[in-house]
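Model: You mentioned two targets. I'll fold them one after the other.
Researcher: Yes, keep them separate.
Model: Target one:
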Amino acid sequence: MKSKIGIIAIMGLLMVVVFVSGCTDQTNNQTNTSNVTNTTNTSTVKAFDVKATMTGPSTAKKGTTVSINCSVTNQGSSQVVDVKAQSQDFNRNLGTINAGQTKSFTWNVYIPTDSEVQEDFGDNATVSNPFYIGGFAVTGTDSSGSIRTINSNSLNINLS
């Protein structure tokens, strides 16, 4: 029985030695703890990276017209052709926008009075505060011939 226990102990010790030797560098007998990280430095260039923004006043009065500034910027690496900006109130053909180029335009929006809204929608109708202006859509054709669409931000104008 003692010989079986001795053999099992020797086998266990041998397994530990084999395991430890696989985890050490035999030339300097130190544990190998190197972490290998493979990184690849790549640069992704987008053929269609267009940004549409809309800015306007933060406050306005009912019964006035406000100017909304719209811009479309090509942040991509190649030109975008047949660019159009559209909303329910306008349809602008911006043509070709080269890489890094911005095209801008102004859009005027009338903010009605409560009485003007009530003429169309009844005595209880009022102008919402803040006054909400939805964004506009931009479509264009990228360098591969695909038609792409993005949307601008929307605006809230506080009424005083």
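Model: Target two:
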Amino acid sequence: MDQATQMMSDMKTLGFSEYECKAYLKLLEAFPLNGYALSKASGIPRSRIYEVLNNLIDKQMVFEQANEKNRVYYPVEPKIFIEKLKAHYEKLFEDLAEYAGALYQEPKQDDKLVVISGRENIISFLKLLIQGAQKRVAVSIWEEEIQDLTVELDAAVERGVMLRGIYFGKKNAYASLTPHRRIDRYVAEKKERYLSIIIDHTHVISGIMSRGANAKVTWTRDEGFIEVSEDYIAHDLIVNLYSASLDPSTYKRFESFADNVHDHYFHYSKKDLATYKNLME
């Protein structure tokens, strides 16, 4: 893409029409020009050229000089035009930030549940939330998902954000995360990868991540939902840290007891229970 094409593309992004771009760029090349000459040089129809020029005059990009026989047009110096444009947009952004910020900070109910679908959309949203984390990120997360969030999590830890929680996988890159025991047992029972992430005790994202485009999570700022999610992760930490502290024989008895508790709650078939008890990894 040459410079002229790039400049036209940039000007269009800023809201200028194609004819306005062509007229201004052509005047930069050769000025002064009357309307007829500019129409011919730029390829803008004669029926439109004066409308385009008037628009550019209104935008303070072109000025007109008239004499007894003719009217000619000059481009405003690019440096001046760009400074004016920057000042204009800076004012717009300041106004937008002030107004949007005031709306956002108004007291409002935080009990809404928002469903986010599609794994890519979920990961993108999580990246934004983690980038804004200030104090603490609590997770119950699988290896497949943490790989996509490593850059954001590393940056958060680097700026002093605490990272705590449970990690499902073989390659735990964070000493502050506790590996979940018996991954094979968990996968055999659940058959899905679940995720729960809490940002600054303010946002919680929870749901199923293993279905690709059909993955679905719930995002909320509801205090009750956040407390339940925090307790879930804390409970998982207690169980996994305690089991890891046991000697081999005591650990085996503990896991047999845990399997029986799960069976009492979920009422497994005898075949499933036997399978789960044998999956100690």
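Researcher: Noted. Anything on target two?
Model: The mean pLDDT is 88.
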